[in-house]
Amino acid sequence: MLTLLAPQGSPAYSDHPIAIVPAGALQFTLPNRSAPEVSIDGSNSPTKAVASTTSANFGSLYPASGGESSSSTTWGPITNPNSVTVQVVATLSQNPQSAFSITSGTGTINLGPGQSMSVTVKFSNVGQSAGTKTSQLKVQWQQTSGTPIGDPVFYNLTGYVARATSLGGHGLNAKTYLNTPYTGSALLSNHGTLPLGVSAKTLTGAGAVQFRFVSQGDASATTIPAGGDQDIRITYLAELHGNQSAYLTMSFTYDGLSYNASNYLPLQGQARYRPDLTGSSGFDAGTPIQGNPVDGTARLINAGSQPLAIIGVSLGGADAARFQITGGNLAGDVAAGQSRAINIRYLASSVGTHAATLHVSYTYDGGADSVDLNLAGHTFGINQKFTVNLTLSGSGSGTVLSTPSGIACNTNCSALFPANTSLSLHPAASPYSLFSGWTSGECSGTTDCPFVMNSNRSMTAAFDKDVIHQVAIGKPPTYFPSIQAAYAAAKEGDVINIWALPFDENLLCNRPVGITFRGGYDDRYSAIAGKIKLKGTLKIRNGRVVADGVSIE
């Protein structure tokens, strides 16, 4: 028996971290905030700034592990309505995490009459851990001498650095035969502490048409809980020979922010030509006597269209030690349409039945495969003998003879023969009987029965009375199963020849013909062997009848 191992599909993956990138830079633009108008000369109605506090939320930033991300807010324009130069001082009065910085308008700025300025504050994730960040922007008007004009204005600043994603999983690497689809799984794992929103998935890349989602649920948007997974079932169609690659593309939402994942999970497929080893065979050593090794050949046939490269040949199975490889086991190519003979020796060193496998590993069309060829043998002991049990059945009789001698039975019998004896049984029917055939056991049909004595054997020989040939007319003869049937077919002057047997018939002769009943003959109709015994009546109503050798009982 030939066992062809199917190619391996998606290999076992270990979960590994996967990096994703932010969906894009974040820039928040808050409404411009105008500083209070103040006057310090007499040309305008003096308006003193009154101390006030407002808030500015810079929104959420991506975690620093994904690269720098920032947002900025600008206050302005701040215009000097006075006829003299004044100063504007912008500082961060509180900035405990150093997440905020003034990028424009920082420090003391001189503003001439009618001049304007703006203050821009940047919120950055650089060096920041996840969480809420705070600061306070202080804006103070003052004279060039440094004397404050009115009270400062405060802006409470807040921003949030999102928690980093922690994703793992694997793609799909499918290896199969051409036009033999393979279904496996890609895995997406959320190792984070928050739910992960996953968008609908698409298949992209040059080989995308060779992959399919198994169900709509595999492609749909979903949410993966913290510590959870999504098993994404994918079928590789394997409709094109060679290697195909594609990707699972999707986007994510985590801790309020969006991430892109173009070409996120790789999909690989390899469709190979299927090896064809039709006609390959193992080795059956038969049934040797102990101490008589048997040499033979197992054969690997490459009936495919591609070269087959043998990598290694080894013995396997429980009884591998009962066999030896004696040749033909070197690595090398077997061209398309060619074969490799591998020489095997069955040691016959131990009594019993032994089975092993010849394991041939090889590559075919770029993929590794293997095949197991079966090895078998049964060793008999030196003095092992087996019994033939013969049963005779049927309505007739006969004798069964054996070659070599040992059986000459006309009734049920048995005989012993040494193991591995080539025996032939010959059925010989007795006179007036037929051999009907072997009706059970090792034999069939109506001819001699040959077999090898490698186990106990039982068979039945059936001999039946020959009712077909017991009555005949003419030469060549026409046979009839009864005297009455022959009489009904006889013509004027016919002689009806009859075996020397008893006939249970009531014979009626009522035809206007003259015939002769003659008997009783032997089974070959060559000589008179006795009388015809008619166990019944003979009535002649018409015609003429001569009864020669007929007795009526």
How would you characterize this protein structure?
It is a single chain. This protein is mostly beta strands. It folds into 5 domains: 21-161, Immunoglobulin-like; 165-272, Immunoglobulin-like (Sandwich); 283-379, Immunoglobulin-like, CATH 2.60.40; 385-465, Collagen-binding surface protein Cna, B-type domain (Immunoglobulin-like), CATH 2.60.40.1140; 471-552, no CATH class. The chain is built from 2 helices and 45 strands. A hairpin with a 4-residue loop joins strand 38 (471-473) and strand 39 (478-480). The radius of gyration is 53 Å and the shape is rod-shaped.
Question: Whole-number average pLDDT?
Answer: 89
Q: Any idea what the radius of gyration is?
A: 53 Å
Report on the biggest sheet.
Answer: 7 strands, mixed
How would you sum up the global shape?
rod-shaped
The proportion of strand residues reads over 45%
Number of helices: 2
CATH architecture of the largest domain: Sandwich
**How widely separated are the two ends?**
67 Å
In the CATH hierarchy, the third-tier topology of the largest domain is known as: Immunoglobulin-like
CATH top level assignment of the largest domain = Mainly Beta
Low-confidence stretches: 1-16, 25-39, 42-51
Q: How many strands in all?
A: 45
Q: Oligomeric status of the shown chains?
A: single chain
The residue fraction in helices comes out at: under 10%
Instruction: List the domain count as a whole number.
Output: 5
Briefly note the structural class of the backbone: mainly beta
Summary?
With 553 residues, the chain is an all-beta fold.
